[in-house]
Amino acid sequence: MRxxxxxxxxxxxLSAPQARAAVFKDAQLEQMLEAxxxxxxxxxxxxxxxxxxxxxxxxxAKAIAATGGYDGRALDxxxxxxxxxxxxxxxxxxxxxxxxxVMGQQVLITSKLKAIGLVPKVRAxxxxxxxxxxxxxxxxxKLAQIYLLIPEFLGGSVGKARELESAIRSKKPEQARxxxxxxxxxxxxxxxxxxxxxxxxxxxxxxxxxxxxxAYGELGRHWIKSQQFxxxxxxxxxxxxxxxxxxxxxxxxxxxxxxxxxxxxxxPLLEKARGLAGAxxxxxxxxxxxxxxxxxxxxxxxxxxxxxxxxxxxxPGHVKDARKSLAALG
Length: 330
Fold this sequence. Notes:
mainly alpha
């Protein structure tokens, strides 16, 4: 649900790491989701469904697995699976979250008109999921971000996002910092949003850690537009220190080098990012192709573009650009 759900922020308290409310009750399914192993998640879900066709956890897992890509037919099928989950187990928060995830992914590949019609449905499903499980961070976070990112006529509301943040301020301070940072960014209080973001301690909370990574990317883009490059580098280096096993900080630093027209500096950073956790969700090979092309390394550029075009999780917009760049190399 990137367009609806990408974040800007959070912060770093010197408190003990917070536990997170898992999406799935089954530890194996949860681990696959956290590791973004969507194919394995789909296989595990199908195995369970072959033995228990009405298993709500498995139905939700099967639906969520489809959100790892941009296949319209797969998402249509996943929508039916998620709806079946809701119909069979209306009190299971994960079913409503799965439905929201699928529709959110559809927003990214459908027409603007259809997307506008989907947004209220995504918001409603997230609201239901959160009402059923107030500790379900992903539902709270994505709902807050929808309130902040969409216009008022579609249900956007800074006030409602603030309510979601204040409800967990004492119980989940790190998660609340993220939401507060999002709100501050929406209000264009950029300095305050950055302070909150760089203060977050995610502990073992994988969903919060993902939001923080997304937040760094969004806030970094804002500062890049303002040409505050030293500030961006400091931010990204902090993220690297906090999450060294993740691809995102290396990718962001590589993108910063490209913005500064330093492709030779970008290449090793992007190559490093390729082998780390979370790489599949980032357009690393597309940008790597750009960097190699800028350095005159045509064959390496072609290989990078071809890898990206063959990737299941390649984003439609990046696919179009990468295909055009590959064709230009001859």
